[in-house]
Amino acid sequence: MTRSFCLVRRGVLGFDCCARPRHAVRHHARHVAWATGAFQVQTVSSAANPGALFWQGVLSNVLNPKVAIFFLAFLPQFVDRENGNAAVQMFALGMIFAFFGLCFLVTIGISAGALGKWLTHRPHYTDLLRCLASSILVILGIRLTLTERA
Predict the structure, then answer these.
(1) Could you give the CA distance from residue 20 to residue 41 in angstroms, rounded to a whole number?
(2) C-alpha pair distances (Å), 12 with each of 8, 19, 144, 149
(3) Per-residue pLDDT at 31
(4) How far apart are CA 76 and CA 82, in angstroms?
(5) Which pLDDT does position 133 carry in this prediction?
(6) Residues with Cβ < 8 Å from 3, sequence gap 6 or more?
(7) pLDDT at residue 111 greater than cutoff 90
(8) pLDDT at position 11
(9) What is the sign of the dihedral through the CA atoms of 78, 83, 87 and 90?
(10) Phi-psi bin for 46: left (phi > 0), alpha (psi -120 to 50), beta?
(11) CA gap 144, 57 in Å, rounded
């Protein structure tokens, strides 16, 4: 960025000149997605392999730095060196965490699948949810557009 652009952008006029076109483009993209039916519920089941999807989820969870930070920062406070090997205790706590996480995600997956099937057979609710989501996005876009920056 050039220096003059940075100076202009810091002012109210600069904010209006830079932000409003961007918001207009976002609003137009939302309107086009809503009008073309981009938010339609898929009625055809996915042809993806469930095993491949599972291992993709495991890989993304293992490589997630938030999970590693959680294990390194939170779990060690529950390890007592007087009760045995610290590595075994950390492994046991990790397995407990993984078990409860699996139970939670299975519940979410089953619930989402049931809700998806229910919405597939009731297009009226799908249209209502699409209109609700579009309205929320438009309201947020208008609010963001009208927000004044200091």
Answers:
(1) 32
(2) 8, 10, 14, 7
(3) 57
(4) 13
(5) 92
(6) none
(7) yes
(8) 45
(9) negative
(10) beta
(11) 34
DSSP 77: G
Whether residue 75 contacts residue 96, with contact meaning beta carbons closer than 8 Å, is answered with no
For residue 1, what is the DSSP state? -
pLDDT digits (tens, 9 = 90+) for 99-109: 998 899 889 98
pLDDT at residue 45, as a whole number: 56
List of long-range contacts for 131-134, beta carbons under 8 Å, 24+ apart: 133/39, 134/30, 134/31, 134/34, 134/39
Report CA-CA distances (Å) from 53 to 56, 58, 99, 103, 107: 5, 9, 18, 17, 17
For residue 38, the model assigns a pLDDT of 53
The count of C-alpha atoms lying within 13 angstroms of the C-alpha of 83, restricted to the half-sphere facing its C-beta, is 9
Phi, psi of 120 (to 5 degrees): -65, -35
The pair of structure tokens assigned to 17 is 């000149």
